[in-house]
Structure formats: C-alpha cells, structure tokens
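Entry:
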Amino acid sequence: MLIRALPFLKTTALLAFMVFTCLPLVQLTLLSFTATLATPNMDVGSLTLGNYRGIWTDPNLRSAFLNSIAYVLINICITIPVAIPAAYAFSRISFLGDKHLFLAFIAFRITPPVVLTLPIFQLFSALGIVNSTFGIALAHCLFNVPISIWILQGFISAVPKEMDETAFIDGYSRPMFIWKFLLPQIASGVAVTAFFCFMFSWVEVVFARILTTTNGKPISMAINALFGFQTDIGLVMAVTLASMLPGVVLLFSMRNHLSRGFKIGRV
C-alpha cells in the first residue's frame, strides 16, 4: 500500500515545495504593482506602474543599476582572461608546490570578505581607486579569480592532453592553442565561470559599503537605502524584482552552456 502511494506522496511534496518557493515571488510581484503610499492621485492598494517608473526617474536607482552592471562586466573581463592561463598551468604543468598553491587559492576564496576589507581599503586608498566603480570590480576579482581557476581547471583537465601535443607538433604556440583549440572545448566551463562571477558581483555588498561613499553604489545598497521612516514598500519590491531580471535573462540565455558545464565540470 505504501509503495503504491509513494508516487502520490512525491508529487504532493514537490507541489508543496514549489508553492513554498514561488509564494514569496508572487507576493513580491503583486506588491511591485501596488501603491503602498498614498498620493494625491493614488490611493493605497491601487494597481499602478508608478513603482517601475520611479526606478528610471530616480537618478540614484538608475546609477545603482548601471554601477552593478559595470561591476559584472569589468569583473568578467578581468577574471576570465586571468583564470584561463592559470587554470591551464595547474592542469597541464607540474611544478614544485603546485598542489599547495592551488589549495592556497581555494583557501583564500573561502576567507570571509569582511576580514580583508581593511587591508584592501588601505591599498586602494594608496592607489586612489576608493569610491570608484573600477575599485569595487577589482575587489570582486580578488575573490572570483580563485574560484574561476578551480572551475576552469576541472574543465581543462577533461580535455585530452593529446590535443595539446598534436597542436604543438603542427607548429601552434601555447597561446594560439588556448585561443584556437582549447577555448571552444571549454566554452561551457567559461559560461559557468561567468555565471559565478555574475552571482558574486551582483549581490556583493561588503566591499560596496567599505569602498564607496558617494559614487559606485550597487543596486543592493540602493535597495537598503530605500528603507526609512516611511518606506515605500511597492517601490522596494519593484526595484527588487527589477534587480532579479538580469540574472533570469542570463540564466535563460546561457541555459544550454550551463547545463553542459555543470555536468562536465561536476561543479
């Protein structure tokens, strides 16, 4: 009897989990289209698009979105070109202390960001890049490069070494081999790496709090600044939902590469 009821119990548990997961998103979406502060032309509880109009009319929110996008783009453009040669070296070349160095990279990645805020602040102050978009993106790279090396090293190790040897016999240099032959083979791994870089940079707030005062604030800090004595919850929900859209678009557009990447790399 229990065995026959098992499929039904699995379906029920799955539906309950989906409802539990989606209910906050449904409530968030409904509130984003609801007026939560009374205005001369709008009563509380009325349906409105004014919350979304407020995102683009508010210069602080608009600049916060642009800053977050800039963090992600700069981070990816620096991290992946640095991580690919390093991952190739760890995968193909044996040298003294290679395993220890690789573990040191991983250990650095699991270090809480708040531990490094003071030395990073002092270094960036000396370089004059505090309170800048580039400074925040560079701080993100410090944490994304180790995890990117780890991810890409697994993908490169899955590529047969015979491909390297054949390319070298044909006269290709190592940089040309990486560009022309290796990158197409690990395209899924690059997609997974870019996804992880995006996730870290888009939601990171510790460095943004320490390294910015007026310029370069990301969307996460802009949402936090909306809370006050009289909070417009509808606007907060609209900004929150809008901040989720880039991740959804990225996930949908790269779904095939990500699916293959997670299977091949076992991330």
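The chain has one domain: 59-265.
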